[in-house]
Amino acid sequence: MIKTELNELKKLYTPKKCSITRMAGCYVDGEKNKKAVFSRSFLSLPEEEMYKYLDFLKKALSGNIGKTAHTLDFTNESEKQGGQQDFLLKLRNSKLEDEGLLDEYFGRIISSFEYVGNYLILVVHDAYDVPGKTADGMVNDDASEEVYDYILTVICPVDLADAGLSFDPKSGEFHNRKRDWIVGMPVLGYLFPAFNDRSSDIHSCMYYSKDAENLNESFIDMMLGAIEPMTACEQKETFEQIVEETLGEECSFTSIKNIHEEMTRMVADSAENNMPLTMEKSDIRNLLEASGSSNEKLSTFDDKYEKVVAEDRPLMMSNVFNSRSFDVKTPDVVIKVKPDRTDLVSEQEVEGRDCIVIELNGDVTVNGIKV
Fold it and tell me: 6, 327, 328, 332: which is deepest, by most CB within 10 A?
């Protein structure tokens, strides 16, 4: 899924536009006990409560693509009868009206989700009448293409509010505030089926994790039966290792500067494309070739790549490339340069020593003082 598809769904989550048919929930304590279970029509909620629940749901659709939001593909095994995807289909098709299925669903989540403390599981069912789009991208509400039938699940922490004083307007006095259990924003959520190309895709789901570096891989495997994604940090480390392993002694300041400039060009060329820019094996090879790597080093690329990458997965450009800065670091000095002004920095030999040389261009300040 891409950002525009997430935003399209998120815009539905207002009391006026909302078409959510039903909501179910399960409150779980720190010992994995079900403390409360409920199921009700969503549109019958008081408006103030509805706003709160919609905020939780919108948060799960607000992730950063490739970092906190990932489109996960189900394994072939999970799509077989009795598999995780097969179970999600049954739950979706029940429209959350089967109490037995809901009880089993909450049980599966509780056994798969590792969390210290109390939490609330919320799941909603919705049927979105997807409006058509004209050739120029304009939405046509009168030309519906399909009904997107889906469920969205979020898991929210429940913590005691901080102790404190509160003001009583009737008495005009401050009194000790009662410590209530407060539901926080979700730490995890998933949308099934995925809304790919503005259409239902039962072979994948959209997964949200508040912590970009801890995606809860065991939950993805046990509960969803989906292929685990690489975290943003893992993607960055993988790319850096591929470059270092391939270039070897050719991995110099100039070669990395050339790679940075080539990636800057790639990002600029894709600026008008709504799809996230990704790099597969062939793209990384082309990148190294365009940056001036020798044929000798490129001849070893396939072996080096397979050594570093266990599974051939595309890397998100936003995870491996810093488009806001070109950084040079030594043990004692850090240099940050605007990504489009790498021409101001070069490697030169000065008085017999290897140096990073910065061209002085315009005003110069030291500790805020113009010199």
Answer: 6
